[in-house]
Amino acid sequence: MSTLVLLPAVDVTEGHAVQLVQGVAGSGGRYGDPLDAALAWQRAGASWLHLVDLDAAFGRGSNADLLAEVVRKVDMAVELSGGIRDDESLNRALGTGCARVNIGTAALENPDWVRSVIARHGDRVAVGLDVRGTRLAARGWTAEGGELYETLDRLNAEGCARYVVTDVLKDGMLRGPNLALLRDVCARASAPVIASGGVSSLADLRAIASLVPLGVEGAIVGTALYEGAFTLADALAEVAS
Amino acid sequence: MTPRVVVLDYGSGNLRSAQRALERVGARVEVTADADRSLDCDGLVVPGVGAFAACMAGLRAVGGDKLVTRRLELGRPVLGICVGMQVLFAAGVEHGVWTEGCGAWPGTVERLDAGVLPHMGWNTVTAAPGSVLFAGIAPGTRFYFVHSYALRSSAAGEFAASGALISLAEHGEWFAAAAERGVLSATQFHPEKSGDAGAALLANWLEIV
């Protein structure tokens, strides 16, 4: 009942998965093959994949064709993320057949566009909220966006179907998720929340799973898996119990 | 006049979200388990998540089952949400364990026969003709569900025959996504997590409290 959906992450830059999946044949060296990485999570039992185009996110390139191939070849539902901030990037992302796309926080600089995307695509679109304190951190996490809760109220009113919440000070740091932030966003959100960032242990996943009753639907897990803090199979078993 | 609503705080459910969602559509909301306040308010919301048996135990611990019964006798509106809907029925069966419910409605809540459980995500609801909750809400509108158990439509015969308005959704099989009979209403989905559509439904409910 209180099952938390786990979304293992594959971050792609210059055609490679940034973090190597441990034990994946052919993924030697610093970088791995994104499809191999994705299929490894699929074999481990994942039902969802969080697939990120880091180059697009940082506005320095695109791995669109490669990501589309990954979406085609896996049997998991895919959440596509990274650099989706106009109709062209959105349509390309949706055109891959992915289950949903994450609109980046940077896109919130264009409220009219976000409103129209929510209206047109409903629950195929999630809005990413990259948070620093109570402010949104925009482009590349360096520029500052609007106030979190004002933006959330506006997106609620526009019918946003899902929020992906990242504490940018926690992401990739293996220092535990920001549970207080997740609680506060859930209390304010009129849609489910995906937690992103900071998961370092199975205990962290249990803590996030305890927020399912408040409206947390899933958790994106990246660094902890790649660093070997726990296996995906263990994590799936943990949140299913 | 601003309707006064109590969200029953018995240790289960999405209290703050429910409070905020109801405030957004114009209610004055208190989150409490106080028996007098829960009995006297215009509308009572019974939330609930997790296991049927645990919810029922929590509800009994604060006298919530008697409270619901008493309010219905007095003709005062009650809205159950998610497991807060399920416990309104006569019983629930989870993992082979039978648990008595509040018994306000006939029927037994059971596990859905579906390939993928829990049923988690946005889904459409086929509103019962004459439904108050879904008044003015367009067909095809989606609501947010998280559950594995429900009143299956195959087990809803007696309930339907009693004059209940049963709105259905499908996940593996058809089940009661919402129900209304007299002053008692309930949704299997989470209106407080269903954006605009959920707000519209809660606003409809406030019309009758």
- H/E series of chain B: EHEHEHHEHEEEEEEHEEEH
Strand order, largest beta sheet of chain B: 2-1-3-4-13-12-11
User: What low-confidence regions of chain B span 5 or more consecutive residues with pLDDT below 50?
Assistant: none
> Which shape of chain A, going by the Cα principal axes?
globular
CATH superfamily of chain B: Class I glutamine amidotransferase (GATase) domain
Strand order of the largest sheet of chain A: 1-3-4-5-6-9-10-11
Number of domains of chain A: 1
Distance between the termini of chain A: 9 Å
- The protein's oligomeric status is heterodimer
Helix content of chain A: 25-40%
Residue fraction in strands of chain B: 25-35%
Overall geometry of chain B: globular
Radius of gyration of chain B: 15 Å
Global mean pLDDT of chain A: 87
Averaging pLDDT over every residue of chain B, what do you get? 95
CATH class of chain A: Alpha Beta
What is the CATH topology classification name of chain A? TIM Barrel
